[in-house]
Batch of 3 targets.
Target 1
Amino acid sequence: MKEEFTTGASRRWYDQDPVLSSAMQTLEESGDDTQIKIALNLIKIITEHNIEDSKYEEVSDIINATEIDLATQKRNRWYDLDETLRTAISMLQNCPPETRSAIAVEMAKMVVEEIKKEEEDEEEEELDKLIEEE
C-alpha cells in the first residue's frame, strides 16, 4: 500500500481513471492553443453535466465552487500555467466520479480530434508553402 503513494503517477487524482489519465497526458503534451480549446470545451461540458445531474442549479454555483477550490490549491502543476486550463481541470476534479468518467471519454475524443486537426493544418500549410515556392 505504501508503494502506491510513493510513485509520482499514482499520486495524481486523474490517474485513477485510465481514459482520463491518457487524455490528460496527451493534453499535457499538446500545444498551448490545443490546451486552451480543450479547456474551454471542458468548461462547457462540465457545466452542462453538473446542471443535468442537478448537482448545481446555476452556472454561478459551479463557478463559486471552483473559485473556492482554486484558491486553496497549489500552483505548481503543468496545468496551472494557464488560468483557463487550470479552471477547467479543477472543475473536472470536482465532478463526481461517474460524471468525471463520462467526461473523460468526451475529453479524450476532443484531444484526439484537436491534434488531428492541428496535424492537418500543418500539412496544409506545408503544401501551400511548396506551391508558393514553385
Note: The mean pLDDT is 80.
Target 2
Amino acid sequence: MAPPRRKNLFRLAAPPSATIYVRRGFLAGLKAEFEALKGKRAALVEDKIEAHSQGDLRENFGFKAAKDAIRAVDRKMDELDRFYRRNTFIEIDPAIWLTKPTDFVQLGHVIRIEKEDPGAKRKHRFTFLVATCGETAVDTESDLECLPHNSPLAAVLLGLAAGNPAPVQLPAGPAVLTVLSIRNPTQAELDRLLAPIKFPEMDGSE
C-alpha cells in the first residue's frame, strides 16, 4: 500500500455528516454565492492570462497575485461544495417559533441559562435564541444573542428541561448547565435578529 501523501498526513478528518437546520432561502443564497465565486474565478483567470503576457514571470507580481487569488477562491469553492454535499439541510420558517411548546429546549426557543465552571466555582448567566445554522446576531435592545443549533453549547442544551442542573462536557472543559427559563421569541426579536441570512465562515484554509 502506498504511503499517505504529505498533503493529507496531518489534515484533520472531515466532520461527520449532519442534519443542519437553516432558514428558508439559505440554500438558494448558498448556491448564489458559489456561482458568484465561479464568476470571480473566471475574472481572475483573465487577469492571470493578461499578466502572463507581460513577460518575465520571476518579477511579475501581477501574475503571482492572480495565481494566489485563484487558489484562495478554489479553496473556498471546495469548502462550500463539501459543506453542501456532506450534510442534509432542512429549511425552517421562523414563524413557527412564536408558538412552540416550551417543555424542553428546542430550536427556536429563547433560553436563559446558568453555566457553572466546577473547578473555579464561578457562575455565569446568558440568554440565547437557539437559532438555525450560521446565525450570530445580537439584539442590542435586549442583549439576546443567537446560538446556532449546531454549536457545541446548543448541542448539549437541546432537549433539556428547565430547572435541572446537567453536567456536560464542552470544548473548554466540563461544566454544569442549568436552564433557568424557556420561552418563545417575540416577532420584534426575530425581526431584529434574523436579517439578513448569514453563511458559516469558509476561509478555504488547508
Note: The mean pLDDT is 88.
Target 3
Amino acid sequence: MSESRVPSVLTVKPSTAIRADYKKFSELCHQTDDPILITNNGENDLIVMSHEAFCRREAWYRLQMKLAVADRQMAEGNFSDHEAVMKRLRERIRHE
C-alpha cells in the first residue's frame, strides 16, 4: 500500500462470485490493494484481500502504532539523546 495512494471505493461482491469463478475472483483481489466486501444473502459477511495486500496493510498498521508510541513518548519528554541511543545500539549489536 503506497503512502500516496488514495483508497478507492470499496468493491462489493456476492459470495456466489467466489463459488462461480474462484480464479477470476482471485485475480480481482490481486488487482487491488483494497479489501473486497463479500455479501451473503444481501448482508455484509466477509472482507477479502490478497495476501500481499494484507501483509502491506499489516506492516503499515504496525508502523503507525510505533509512531504513535514515539509521539506519546516525545510529548511526555521521554526520549534519549543521540549518544545514548547509539550506545544502546552498539551494545545490542555486540551481544546478538
Note: The CA atoms of residues 68 and 86 lie 22 Å apart.
